[in-house]
Every structure is written in structure tokens, then in C-alpha cells.
Amino acid sequence: MAFPYLEAVLGFMICVYIFETYLDIRQHAALKLPTLPKQLEGVVSQEKFVKSRAYSLDKSYFHFVREAATIALDITILAFGLLPWLWKITDLPFSLYSTFVIEARHGFNKQTVWLFFRDIFKGILLSLVFGPPIVAAIIYIVQKGGPYLAIYLWSFMFLLSLLMMTIYPILIAPLFNKFTPLPEGTLREKIEKLASSLSFPLKKLFVVDGSTRSSHSNAYMYGFFKNKRIVLYDTLIQQCANEDEIVAVIAHELGHWKLNHTMYSFIAVQVLSFLQFGGYTLVRNSKDLFRSFGFDTQPVLIGLMIFQHTVIPLQHIVSFGLNLISRAFEFQADAFGKKLGFAASLRAALVKLQEENLSAMNTDPWYSAYHYSHPHWWRGWQLSMNLIRRQIRLKCRWSWLSLGLCNLEG
């Protein structure tokens, strides 16, 4: 008797939707609370709390609609065997509404409709440039891989990831944003001094014009070996008038590097990728799998897409586990910044970034435990202070899945 792959996938998708909707309802109730958490009284202004609450509720209402439409479309397409490229057709109108209604209503959106569609057009062109040779290579490897298919696929994707991580910040990212060297001055001197004290091989320090699209703030670092770069969003500089607060944010990010979080993350990516390709080799010739999804033939790319759906249960479990580890990493990075003497500045920076970006002040503990890769900011700060003392005794180390970029997003 053939295993009911399609029915199993559909059943799990519905169960996940019900569970995540339950968490969303809990979170929505937390967002509707009319008062600040006691820990934030006297720290966050009432005006900022009211704005944050309104922004979070708007996003929550929108999330309910978007998720309901997405699950309905996914089930319809899978159940009735429609073309796979229809799976994400609803994303564009939702992205438009999110950007030009919700983000604009709360003062975050800065991009024009022309810029929005120009970015989409550039993305399509990049897909046309990189997509065909990558797809052709994958098809060839699957056809010729034999018993070592998983190793060949993993090796190809490993080399491809190194290539993309190298050319993305140099060739692709500048197509969407303008990167300029951080001007000479005390901020640059402080960051360079901090990097030097940690033996961080900083080669370039950029400011990116994130304000052309959004007033949300961010900072990240990237690069291989002795060629590291740090990027600050211009909005981060605008929101943190005190230079020590910006340096504290960088200290947090350098903590990820110093504690080898980035390396652990890259290794985790490779291990999970290899296991995923190994699983694919076990079912790629299964006629029952293809027939379950309505295909009489066994095209290589269709097989890969179907396999992605069959491992959704494992992906959710892995994602939850990685979120736990990610939050542990964030505690460690906070502790690292504090040990460098940036405790007060980092706390002030986190408070300011959460205020300026209208991040949710009240969160449901179940929702945050399941979804958040970063600790909820005020709980995270309190717990990281306790973690410092525990780390001295335990010297714990964790690993986390990422793409090799350490980010702190507002």
C-alpha cells in the first residue's frame, strides 16, 4: 500500500496552522494590554507605548488575514494539483499592503511605488542570470550523481554558498542600496579601536542608505577570514545620537564573532544541508511520492520541491530548536558587551531602538518562545545579566543556524 504523502503533508500543514493561530491569538491578547509591563515603567514613555501598541496590533490583524489566505491557497494548490509556481502568487499584494499601508501608516515606509517595483524587477533579473546555470547544474548532478548524490549536491551547494556570500555584498547588495565609507570622526575611531582591541580584522566600515526604504534600523558584519566589514544603517546612526550606544551595538555584534557563533552557524548550515540532501536521495525515485502529488513523471526540480513539503514537520522542529540556541547566543553576546564595559550604553541603545522601531512591549511567553530568535528585549536584558554569572561557571557554548551574517534588527 502506497504511503499517503500528500495527505500527510496536508494534515500536518493544517495542524501547524491551528497551533500557530492559537499562539497568534495569545500574542494578540498580549498586544491589546493597555498598560506597560512593570519592568518598563519609567523606562519607556507612554507616548511611545501607545504608538508601539497601535503598530503591533495593526501588524497582528494583518498577519491573521495573510496566514489564512496563504494556508487556503497552499491547501487548494496541493489538493487540486495546480502548478507549483502558484504557491506564492499572493505574496505581492500582501507585500504591497504591508509596505504602503501598515508601514506607511506608522511612519516607517520611505520608499516609493517605483522603488518597490524596481527592486522586484532587479530581483527577477538576478534570478534570470543566476537561476538557469544553478538549476542546470543541480539537474546534471542528480542525473549523474549515483550513490554519492548527497555528497555531490552538498559539495555544489557549499561552494555556491561561499560564492554567493562573497559576491553578494560586493556586486548584488550595491544594486539595491548605496554603501559609503563611514566618515572620519570620533565614531569611526571608537569602532576601529574596539575592533583592534579584539583582533577583529576590520577592513572596511560602511554606512548604508537604509532610510531610502524604511526608518527601521540595523547593523551587521560580514566577510571571510582577514577581510571583515561592518555595515551601519544610517537610521541607526540617526536614532542613537550618543556614539557610545552605537559602539555598544557593534560590541554586541563582535561578541558573536569572538565567541565563534558565526562559525558554529555556518557549520550547522552545512550539516543540516547534507542531512537534507541525504533524505532526498532516499525518496527521489519513489513513484508513490510523485503520484501522491499528482505527477505521473518524475522531473528533478519537481522532486526537490515535493521533498521540501514532505520534510516540513522536521523543519518546524529544527526551527524551534534553533530559536532556543539563537536566544542563548544573544545572551552570550550581551554578556560579552557588558564585560567590555558597555552595559549601560548597550541597555540604553536597546531601549532606544525598541522605542524608535515601535517593537512590541507586551508579548505572550508561549508565542515568543516558539517564534522569537532573539529574546524579548527587556526579559532578554534581565536574563543576560544572570547568564553572565552562570557563564563564568558553565562556560557553555551553543550553535545556531544562520547565513553567516550577524544582525541586530530594530
From TrEMBL:
Main location group: endoplasmic reticulum
Regions crossing the membrane: 6-23, 68-87, 120-142, 149-171
Annotated Pfam families: Peptidase_M48, Peptidase_M48_N
Enzyme Commission (EC) number: 3.4.24.84
This protein's name: CAAX prenyl protease
Catalytic activity of the protein: Hydrolyzes the peptide bond -P2-(S-farnesyl or geranylgeranyl)C-P1'-P2'-P3'-COOH where P1' and P2' are amino acids with aliphatic side chains and P3' is any C-terminal residue
PANTHER family for the chain: CAAX PRENYL PROTEASE 1
GO cellular component: endoplasmic reticulum membrane
Cofactor: binding comment: Binds 1 zinc ion per subunit.
Catalytic-site annotation from UniProt: 253, 334 (proton donor)
Domain (CAAX prenyl protease 1 N-terminal) ranges: 89-178
Domain Peptidase M48: residue ranges: 182-376
GO biological process assignments: CAAX-box protein processing
Keyword Cell division in annotation: no
Entry's Gene Ontology molecular function annotations: metal ion binding; metalloendopeptidase activity
Family: Belongs to the peptidase M48A family.
